[in-house]
Design a protein that fits this description.
Elements: H1 2-6, H2 17-52, H3 54-90, H4 97-101, H5 106-117, H6 119-151, H7 156-161, H8 163-182, H9 204-210, H10 213-230, H11 237-246, H12 256-259, E1 261-263, E2 275-281, H13 296-300, H14 302-308, E3 313-319, H15 325-334, H16 358-364, E4 368-373, H17 382-388, E5 393-395, H18 412-425, E6 431-436, H19 448-451, H20 470-496, E7 501-506, H21 520-524, E8 526-532, E9 545-547, H22 548-559, E10 565-567, E11 580-581, E12 585-588, E13 591-594, H23 601-619
Length: about 625
């Protein structure tokens, strides 16, 4: 109940008693599963042994119950306190982002927790609250034991006299109680509830509130195990060839890369640009471009909108590779969809080049390839990974002249200044710049007001989805800042290199916490902007939607000449596709859908084939045999 009340402003229609009652009812039933695990420990160590030993019952059992109550109360109190900032960040109780975080920079995470989420004051309060509630549980068990002991007086004669009765009673209690707890307050599977079937209400907040923290952690464990099983390759070479054929690959080739070799048929740009700049914006979502957020949204992305709406720009919307930055980096560097694997840690990624990756592709098209990161190269082995996969150079914050910033890196302004300086030094060379930004990310500590952020542009509006508390306003300021310095960089670059081609998109979108629940498009879609000399705003693309995976072959089609070859699982945006997909959603002309819902059998086979081919390429390498 406390959790729901804390975030009730996310409920579109407000909080109603009937909804709160449903949350408490379903939550109570689901928590029987969690409490059953705690009870099992106490039952086995205290009750069962105490039933056959009066000494154990009188001297040890209640101590065990006290400690079980104390430890479990403390742990769950601590987990609840952690859940609150966790939900603020991810709009979810504990989920697979916990696993992703294990591969992140732990020192940077700790620094962010201290600076942005008040770890230094939250944690002591959580500890004190946990100790206090645990002590109350301890006293309750002691009082309960005294009351129970006054009702039951053991002696050896009574123990022997009623021994079989007690055994039978214990058996009935154990079996009946176990079934009741196992099925969440029911005696059969048909009436049961579990973490997968707990989403029975109309709101994400309410559905997440149903899950206690034990069940949320079990969701992480269960989901991770399923991912491991899904990552297990069972396809044979013959089956792999069938899948390659299903997705229009060439089955006469002996390698996966060659099976998806494509030839550029038309030259879209009259002249190949000397500079191609790919900007992958941290948490750069589509939502500010949408009519729902007209006014504040236009202000937040005014630079990107001016580029997209110009005669030299195109704005598309689509699906990111995944829900995190490294998922996007892995996708672009390998040219493969998110399969739940981490190519940056796979041995194959350092033994073979992914021909479909953007670094290798641009290198084959005649460009020097340079990767720019506003953070640190040791994060997720990103330096080592990109240099192994077609990038000639890697530049990170530790090598920049200006060292201002935080645990995650330097502000985007500093990053773009470094790129500008490099471009001036190597002016005239054919260079592909891949720029990964960091500023629109916790701890959100840039002085955005000093940078020019106008608070009044995003407050005093009638958009119910947009929050107006200081914390979220500061986050909006960082969206504005990232867009603003990116736009200034584009303008300055055009002055010195007028033929530059810009590709601007986001790594993911899901991090911003809206005031109300929003649809898939608002929560997850990313913008894709093509801008520069030769780009025609009037180009009639087959459909206005796409995916990040299609962006790589699209760049090849733009900068390459007729007859040049490149490698890609999917065709470019200039060729029609009936739908696109990523790790969680699929998208067609009707809109955004969960990947688990609505796909035809042929579409399911198509998705499975693409993912299996990608997994084979990452795990087993390029050879089909």
């Amino acid at each position: 109940m406390i959790f729901v009340l804390m975030f009730k402003n996310q409920l579109v229609d407000g909080l109603h008693l009937v909804d709160l009652a449903a949350v408490l009812w379903y939550g109570l039933r689901l928590s029987l599963k969690t409490s059953g695990i705690v009870l099992l420990v106490s039952f086995l160590l205290a009750t069962v042994i105490g039933t056959i030993s009066s000494y154990w019952f009188n001297n040890i059992s209640y101590r065990i119950r006290q400690w079980v109550a104390y430890i479990s109360t403390f742990i769950f109190t601590l987990l609840f306190c952690i859940r609150i900032p966790y939900y603020s960040i991810f709009n979810s109780s504990f989920n697979l982002m916990l696993v992703n975080g294990a591969n992140d920079d732990l020192s940077a995470i700790l620094d962010t927790a201290i600076e942005s989420y008040g770890l230094l004051w939250r944690f002591p309060i959580a500890i004190l609250l946990g100790v206090g509630l645990a002590y109350i549980a301890w006293l309750f068990i002691r009082k309960q034991y005294k009351w129970l002991n006054s009702l039951i007086i053991f002696n050896e004669r009574e123990l022997k006299r009623f021994f079989y009765v007690k055994i039978l009673a214990c058996f009935i209690l154990v079996v009946g109680g176990a079934v009741f707890l196992r099925y969440g307050g029911a005696f059969s599977y048909s009436g049961s509830i579990n973490w997968e079937s707990a989403s029975r209400l109309h709101s994400n907040l309410l559905n997440e509130a149903i899950l206690d923290d034990g069940q949320a952690l079990y969701r992480v464990y269960s989901s991770q195990n399923r991912l491991k099983k899904a990552r297990t390759l069972t396809a044979t070479p013959a089956e792999l060839k069938e899948m390659i054929q299903l997705v229009d690959g060439n089955i006469s080739e002996t390698t996966i890369d060659e099976s998806f070799k494509r030839t550029i048929k038309n030259s879209y740009l009259k002249e190949q640009p000397k500079s191609v700049i790919f900007i992958l914006g941290e948490s750069y979502g589509l939502w500010p471009f949408l009519d729902t957020f007209k006014g504040p949204g236009n202000y937040l992305v005014q630079e990107a909108e001016s580029l997209a709406r110009s005669p030299r720009g195109i704005l598309l919307e689509g699906l990111a590779f995944g829900a995190g930055t490294m998922g996007a980096v892995n996708g672009y560097v390998t040219g493969l969809p998110d399969t739940g694997l981490y190519p940056n840690y796979e041995k194959t990624s350092y033994n073979q080049i992914y021909a479909m990756g953007i670094g290798n592709m641009m290198k084959q098209l005649g460009y020097k390839t340079v990767f720019w990161y506003g953070g640190f190269g040791a994060w997720q082995d990103i330096r080592k990974f990109t240099l192994a996969q077609g990038f000639d150079e890697f530049h990170e914050s530790s090598s920049f002249k200006n060292q201002q910033g935080n645990a995650w890196g330097v502000p985007d302004k500093v990053l773009f200044q470094e790129v500008e300086s490099y471009m001036q030094q190597y002016k005239g060379e054919k260079v592909f710049h891949f720029i990964l930004t960091t500023s629109n990310h916790p701890p959100y500590d840039i002085d955005v007001k000093h940078e020019g952020f106008n608070l009044s542009k995003v407050t005093n509006h009638q958009i119910s989805e947009l929050p107006q508390d200081d914390k979220r306003i500061n986050e909006l300021g960082h969206i504005w800042y990232a867009d603003h310095v990116m736009g200034e960089f584009v303008k300055r670059t055009e002055e010195h290199n007028p033929d530059t081609l810009f590709i601007i998109t986001g790594d993911h979108s899901e991090r911003f916490t809206f005031n109300k629940e929003v649809d898939f498009r608002t929560a997850s879609a990313i913008p894709i902007i093509l801008y520069g000399k030769g780009i025609d705003h009037n180009w009639l693309l087959p459909q206005p939607y796409t995916s990040a995976l299609q962006l790589i072959p699209t760049i090849a089609t733009l900068v390459g000449k007729s007859g040049d070859v490149y490698y890609s699982l999917l065709p470019s945006m200039f060729e029609p596709t009936s739908f696109v997909f990523n790790y969680n959603l699929w998208l067609d002309k009707e809109g955004y859908h969960k990947l688990s819902d609505g796909l035809s059998n042929r579409q399911k086979k198509y998705v499975e084939a693409i993912k299996t081919i990608a997994m084979w390429r990452i795990i087993k390498g390029n050879s089909i045999e």
